[in-house]
Structures are given as C-alpha cells and as structure tokens.
Amino acid sequence: MKLGYNTNGFAFHTLPDAIEIIAELGYKCVALTLDVHHLNPFACSALEVNEVAKQLGRLNLECVIETGSRYLLDPRRKHRPTLIDEDSDSRVHFLYRAVEIARDLGAPVLSYWSGARPEGWTGSDDELYKRLAYHVGKLEELCTTHGVRAALEPEPGMLIESMADYDRLAELLGFRPGLTLDIGHLECVEQKPEWEYLSSYRDVLYNLQLDDMLPGRHRHLFFGEGSVDFARTFRALRDLGYSGPACVELSEASRNAVETARRAKDFLDGVETSIAE
After folding, report:
1. What is the DSSP letter of 118?
2. Mean pLDDT split into 10-residue runs, the chain, 277 residues
3. What is the DSSP letter of 252?
4. What is the pLDDT, as a whole number, of residue 19?
5. How many CB atoms lie within 10 A of CB 218?
6. CA dist., res. 18 & res. 70, Å (int)
7. CB contact at 8 A, 146 and 103
C-alpha cells in the first residue's frame, strides 16, 4: 500500500510547501483535501492545478482527493450543505469540480461522505437514503467517465456512519459503491475488529485513512493514544494484498504539522518492519 499524509494536517502551510514536506518525509501519497487555501475548486485556475500535477510528478507522489473541508461551502455551518440536505446544489457542484480536479491531477480516488442528517430533521431516514442513493449513483457514473474511483466514507455522526448503514445504502442502490475506510472510525463505531471489515469489503476498498481512536469517541488521535491494533491491521492489509492509498489523517495536529508527520511516518515504518519479520 502507499503510505501518505492528508494536507488537512498542514492547515497553516501552503499546498506546495505541504506537498514538498510530505515527500521529504518519505511518504508516497498525498491526500489532498480541497479547501479554502488548498486548491479551492471554486477559485483555483487550470494553471494552479497543472502546477500541482507537475509537482506531484516530480516528487513521484500519488494523490487522493479528499472532500472533507469544513467551511468551504458555508462559512457559518460546518460541512453544510450535504448530499442529503434539500439545498444540496453547492455540495453537488463541489463534488463534480473535485472529480475534474482529480482527473487533472491523475488522482485514482475521490473520497466523500454522506453528511449528517439535515438540521432539525424530523422525517424518516428512508427519504434521506433515497436522496443519497440518487447522488451516489450519479457521482459513481461521473467518476467512471473521468477515470476516477468514487469512495464513500462512513463517518461517525453522519447518516452513513457504520458498515450496516453502508450495507443499507448498497441494497438500495443495487450495488456496493466504492469505499473509503478510516481505521479509527471502525474502532470508534463498530463492534468487530478492524481487520474483519477490511476482509469483508476488500472488493470495493479503494482508500484508507489512518489514525488512532477509542470506542465511542470520535476524535482522531496519534498512533498509540487509542486502542487500534495497527500491527494486526497492517498484517491483514498485507494478507489481502491491498495496494491502494493509506493516508494519515490528523487535522488537529496542524500547529505541529512537520514533527507530527515525521513521528507518524516513523511509527508506520516501525509497524511495517515488525510484521515483515
């Protein structure tokens, strides 16, 4: 697999500087979170996208497009609007632009999530699943057209937060959509160990996010501060032959971005060494 680091952990760096540092530390992939200061899809030019593509090529870095920016669409409401809000147009526009940027950067995967239930929602989840299924189907088609894989991420607190929720959506769609799995989220939400889900969904697993977490507590922790068994998890990934992106996601560590990214790489290298022995 291609170990990487998410640019949301470099919130106080320019994107070119963040990419350069991530490469210097030995990572092979960049999870590029499109945001107000990192290739804002509503403001960046084709020239800017091309410059990032050239930098990634020069550094021999793979790229995954992440769409979890907090206030890009609404400066007052975190992550709003979503695909399941009635006013979802700006979210749809954002994701469609993200697909175009992924294509232009040669990124193989675009990661996204359902979003939380609409504020004040009192209706049935059935309606929300129908809304989401419609958009997921359209996004999968668009990504296929542009040579990109769409990867839906279950996220604590959102409509799709568990693998059971994902399965419900897949049943409605009639197929299993591409999947992003955050190892910490599995530890936070699920009852079974992470490696069982990696095996069960291997055919649609296109993207991994790496962080530690505690059961029932949605906070991205540095490795060793939660309860994830990374040695067992990495061994499972090796046995499955997973060769896709696996990027560290520690957005709260931006104040100490370089040192955190370095420590994370040292930890992950140590895990890989231990399971190879």
Report:
1. P
2. 97 98 98 97 97 98 97 96 97 98 98 96 95 98 98 98 98 98 98 95 98 97 97 96 97 96 98 89
3. G
4. 98
5. 14
6. 19
7. yes
The position carrying tokens 């990572």 is 27
**Radius of gyration for the alpha carbons in the chain, expressed in angstroms and rounded:** 18
Note the pLDDT tens digit of each residue in 177-203.
999 999 999 999 999 999 999 999 999
Work out whether the CA dihedral 195, 200, 202, 207 comes out positive or negative. negative
For tokens 């399965």, the residue is: 167
Evaluate whether 9 touches 261 at the Cβ level (below 8 Å): yes
Return all residues near 117 (Cβ < 8 A) that are at least 6 apart: 84, 125, 128, 159
| In the chain, domain spans | 2-276
Residue 86 has φ and ψ, to the nearest 5°, of -65, -35
Contact predicate 188/216, CB 8 Å: yes
Q: What is the CATH number of domain 2-276?
A: 3.20.20.150
Q: Residue 231 is encoded by which pair of tokens? A: 């040695």
Q: What secondary structure, in 3-state letters, does 159-225 show?
A: CCCCHHHHHHHHHHHCCCCCEEEEHHHHHHHCCCCHHHHHHHCHHHEEEEEECEEECCEEEEECCCC
d(CA 136, CA 113): 10
CB atoms within 10 A of CB 164: 11
Helix (H, G, I), strand (E, B) or coil at 109: strand
The number of C-alpha atoms within 13 Å of 85 and in the hemisphere containing its C-beta is 18
Among candidate residues 176, 178, 197, the one with its CA nearest the CA of residue 186:
197
